[in-house]
Amino acid sequence: MEDQDYIMFEAYLSGDLSADELNAFNERLNTDEQFQKAFKMYRDLSSHLEHNITNEQESADFKANLDVISNQYFNKIDDPIGTTTDESGKSNFYKYAIAASVILLLGIFVFNQFNTPTYKDYNNFEPISLTVRSSDNAIFNQAEQSFNAKNYEEALVAFNSILEEDFSNLEIQLYKGIALVETNQFEEADDLLKKLSQGNSAYKHKAKWILALSYLKQENKLACIETLKTIPKEAEDYKRAQDLLKKLE
Amino acid sequence: MSDKILHEDQKYIDGLAENNTFIIQTIYDKFAPKVINYIKQNSGDVYDAQDVIQETIITIYNQAKQKQLQLTCPFDAYFFLLCKRKWLNQLKKANTKEVTINEEILSKEEDAQVLSFESTVFENKEALFNEMFQQLGEACKELLKATFKIKSMEEVAKSLDISYAYARKKKSLCIGQLTKLVKASPKFNQLNY
């Protein structure tokens, strides 16, 4: 194809051909097979570039979201608890252990009923795991270890450098939110968590829960209640949210 | 294809394009088990299945985003075939050990065969386009990134300090250059042009 042809393709795609030019273009498209093939490829490439460059952020959000959902799904089916059919003494031990911890939890629950809830009652965050799929990456390792060791200052440094490379990593954004709340950087934490909770990712409900905890820590009871009320039934933290809500109201 | 009636399962395609969390979760809940089973029975493990499913969903997303995917068959059949083909291709590539493939009776859905094949071609196309884009000259890369990011050609011209007419001409020639690179690639024959 000649340069002139490519210029025509572009003009056609952006709707800039005059009626006469358009007729001539369509005529050639129908009669000249090479021209038609070249145009199809030009059109596909243009659409490809548009999708990849214009929607870069959108695609990154999609992939991040997909990653979470995929991991949630596969962790669930990998989870040996619930699938074990082990009936040995070991499993009896677990039964007693579970029973004991239920009693303990009930005790804590009843005890807490007479107390004003505080942030400390709820900040027992589960350990995070960032290195399963990117074990070669030192910075992910450092982030994971610092966070799990509750060394939130150091975790923040690691999260920030991860986000510098990959600013749309929503999972890291969420953990950063937790670390900010832990280190009392409420303004930045609340901004970040609000953004996440208004988004459409798998983290949105988790972000609401952490935001509510942030308000609890700031002793902003009203904002905490308002935020807790936005956590829907299907959310993982729904029960905890309702529990906290009862105590606050 | 265009005169065929859309299947109601198009909702999964549209949901993916909208990054709808609920739809994505539903796809996993409803359609992943069959794929996992298949891969486990054919020399793979659950981690392979996780990767295959994730890559397949990204392909469907990319295709849906470019409005090139209209489902005329059940999602189930389409999705399974696409995952299956991806897995078999990976096995062929790795080719390290004796591969045992348990052929089972496939869905007789012709549409599913056709659509999943088109998606595989689409995926190959995307991969080759990405590869060739990297081979473009820096000036072209920069200009294309700017034109597709900024949209208004006037602003692009201003930001690159060139005239509007030149920016536009340059854009078409750069894409033209890209079509030549794609055509010259040995992988071009797999693309059905």
| Main sheet makeup of chain B | none
User: Span between N and C termini of chain A?
Assistant: 73 Å
Number of strands of chain B: 0
CATH homologous superfamily of the largest domain in chain A, by name? Tetratricopeptide repeat domain
Oligomeric form of this entry?
heterodimer
* Helical run tally of chain B: 8
Quick tags:
heterodimer, A: 249 residues, mainly alpha, 12 helices, 0% strand, elongated, B: mainly alpha, 8 helices, 71% helix
Description of the structure:
Chain B: GO terms for molecular function: DNA binding; sigma factor activity. Chain B: Pfam families: Sigma70_r2 (PF04542). Chain B: InterPro entries: RNA_pol_sigma-70-like, RNA_pol_sigma-70_dom, RNA_pol_sigma70_r2, RNA_pol_sigma_r2. Chain B: Keywords: DNA-binding, Sigma factor, Transcription, Transcription regulation. Chain B: This is RNA polymerase sigma factor (Sigma-70 family). The model of chain A is unreliable at about 80-90 (pLDDT under 50). Chain A contains twelve helices and no strands. Chain A has about 250 residues and is mostly helical. Chain A has three domains: about 5-55; about 85-115; about 120-249, Serine Threonine Protein Phosphatase 5, Tetratricopeptide repeat (Alpha Horseshoe). The radius of gyration of chain A is 27 Å and the shape is elongated. Chain B has about 190 residues and is mainly alpha-helical. Chain B folds into two domains: about 10-125, no CATH class; about 135-190. Helices cover about 70% and strands about 0% of the residues of chain B. Chain B has helices spanning about 10-15, 20-40, 45-65, 75-95, 110-135, 140-150, 155-160, 165-185. The two termini of chain B are about 15 Å apart. The model of chain B has no long low-confidence stretch (mean pLDDT about 85).
Ordered list of secondary-structure elements with their pairings:
The complex is a heterodimer of chains A (249) and B (193).
Chain A: H1 3-13, H2 19-31, H3 33-54, H4 56-78, H5 89-113, H6 138-148, H7 152-165, H8 170-182, H9 186-198, H10 204-217, H11 221-229, H12 238-248
Helix pairs in contact in A: 1-3, 2-3, 6-7, 7-8, 8-9, 8-10, 9-10, 10-11, 11-12
Chain B: H1 10-17, H2 21-41, H3 46-65, H4 75-94, H5 110-135, H6 138-150, H7 153-160, H8 164-184
Helix pairs in contact in B: 1-2, 1-3, 2-3, 2-4, 3-4, 4-5, 6-7, 6-8, 7-8
Protein name (chain A): Tetratricopeptide repeat protein
Transmembrane segments (chain A): 93-111
Pfam families (chain A): TPR_19
